[in-house]
Amino acid sequence: MPSTNAAATSVPERAPKRLTRFADVKKKLKKSAVLYIIIAPVVIYFAIWAYWPMYGVQIAFKNFLPGVGIWSSPWVGINHFERLFNSYYFGPIVRNTIAISLYSILIGIPTPIILALMFNELRSKRFKTIAQTISYAPHFISVVVAVGMLLFFLSPTNGVINGIIELFGGTPKNFLAQPGSFWSIFVWSGTWQGIGWASLIYTAAMSGISPDQYEAAYIDGASKFRRIWHITLPGIAPTIVILSILSVGGIMSVGHEKILLLQNGLNLETSEVISTYVYKSGIQNAQYSFSAAIGLFNNVINFAILLLVNSVARRINETSLW
Q1: CA dihedral angle for residue 154, residue 157, residue 162, residue 165, rounded to 10 degrees
Q2: pTM value?
Q3: Residue range 88-95: average pLDDT?
Q4: pLDDT of residue 189
Q5: Separation of alpha carbons 184 and 37, rounded Å
Q6: Residue 217 vs residues 104, 117, 220: alpha-carbon distances, Å
């Protein structure tokens, strides 16, 4: 009898607690309703375009037949991955992808920082505004237009660069026909197009550094270089680390649009990367399952590298994405 009474009395005590918790959650949702409405389009966007299509990853393990659909296509296991790893092109495309990415990272990380430091030292606001506008204007140029400008400058017949070479008595060169020049052309043209826009992030980070630190360093006799080294760079170090992690996390991802526009039969040995190989095999040759396997392999490697770099950054500098 005592146990029955205890059980009977315990049930009514739980109900109010659940109702109270529900009321608290409802109150919090109502209080932050505007914030949830603001973030809803972003959540919906990623749910539709990033997470919902992930069910189609299974075609990497199937022989996808468009006529029968994804679910009814026969399973083939890891056959597509074995075909990729045993392919003659696997080594060159991975090498080119990693080499171009590392080249881009080595050039793309320090150059915007240097440019932002130069902007930060300018005293004329008008000149600073004009210079910043000129620097990030190429970011808004489409890839097609940027490649067209690049071909105009590098043309072996009437290009500007070859015209300068001839002016000094040199011999014109077809730069895009030389495999050894492709990586530099791709990376430095991308740096020109994105350096100004990337520098805005560091400029914004520098604006958060207290002017009192610069004044104290100036009173103590610190030179301009010392103030940059001991105040500015440590102040933007977290931003540098975060952007570096994101850059390294995409080391296996090189966009195919620009490469396809610059690619030709003569530079194919250094210009063929994973993304262009996926495009050619998946879109042009309709090998959907094989291209999905390549893309899955690429994304898994990127994710693993991102986790590794983020973990190392958190242990060394205590700054990370999570």
Answers
A1: 170
A2: 0.82
A3: 91
A4: 93
A5: 46
A6: 35, 17, 5
